[in-house]
Amino acid sequence: MKPKFFAILALSTGMVTTANAGVVVLNDWQFDATTVAAEGITAVNGVVTNVDHLVINNVFHTTIDTTGGTTGALDAGDTFNVQANGTVQSFNNAADTVISPILFNSPTSFFTANGWELTFTFNINGVFTTNVDAAGNTNFDHTSGVLNFYLDNIADGTGQAANGAASPNVTDGTLVASFNVASDVGDNNYGGVFNAFLGNGGDRALFSLAANPFGAFKDSLGNALALGTTLAFSNTDFQSNVAGNPPFSYNPAAFQCGLNLTDFCGTESGQLRVGTAAAPEPGSLALLGLGLGLFGFRKRVAYS
Questions:
Q1: Kindly report the CA angle at 11 between 7 and 17, in degrees rounded to 5?
Q2: Residue 108: what pLDDT?
């Protein structure tokens, strides 16, 4: 299932604002692979414009420390770490139409066009904020982490597996962007829910751009996105019961999974959007106060 992201109001400027006006979400940004000379991607297929969101998937490895709570079992106060390898499946516009260039994720070449891919890794820490309820659900927040994107010319056939499976080739390209995971403890707009019985759930995370060394991530005018004020928002579903197998039984070769509640692997898919911190109009400052919640949804939803 492809998750819906959030309710937004389209503007004629090629941007959208969130319900609480804390962020301007770009629905017309660019990715320019030609900025990385070492990868040899040409303008024939290297510039993607009118991007609204990336469709992403990954394989992840989660470990849970149950010593932070009060019971020794999974409960509020326990912490977790997630590591993942993934791939961008497609670039999509605001109508959710795929606008990926020719030979994207294709390990081949055609005249001056070389196949290329955009892969990513992340390492995220977090904390469970509620005890497991009768249906197996518990809520969690993120506390820290890093999301890295890699651009790779794959005309030589060394690309990441198209389904996002863990692969030694996920980081063999050029690091083109890094995002820091923002802490969302106490913010009901981010975080997620995990079902301890089924090993699945949903996740929303907020990131801040920390590095854009080649200027590959650009706004609609072709200017490199600014560090710190450029944000990313992910909305994903995850599961450990991959392909209908029992929960916590997935064991990809690249990760050493414990195959149990506190040490397991799974797959995740969803979307990632880009935005910028919005300066409120002077007349609205008193209304905004400190209410910087970004979206009109709450994360406290159950998975069963």
A1: 45
A2: 92
- Do the domain assignments include residue 299? no
User: Residue 201 domain-assigned?
Assistant: yes
In a domain, 297, yes or no: no
Q: Please report, for residues 7, 31, 138, 142, the alpha-carbon distance to residue 148 in angstroms, rounded to integers and kept in the order given.
A: 27, 15, 28, 17
CB-CB contact of 114 with 42 (8 Å): yes
Expressed as residue numbers, the domain containing 61 is: 9-288
Cα–Cα distances (Å) from 5 to 25, 203, 273, in that order, read 12, 11, 9
For residue 196, being part of any structural domain is answered with yes
pLDDT class of 191 with cuts at 50, 70, 90: very high
Helices marked H in the chain:
285-288
| pTM for the whole structure | 0.86
What is the residue-wise DSSP string for 60-97?
Answer: EEEEEETTSSSSSSS-TT-EEEEEEEEEEEEEE-TT--
Residue 163: burial class (beta carbons within 10 Å; 0-12, 13-18, 19+):
middle
Domain count, the chain: 1
pLDDT tens column, 239-254: 999 999 999 999 987 7
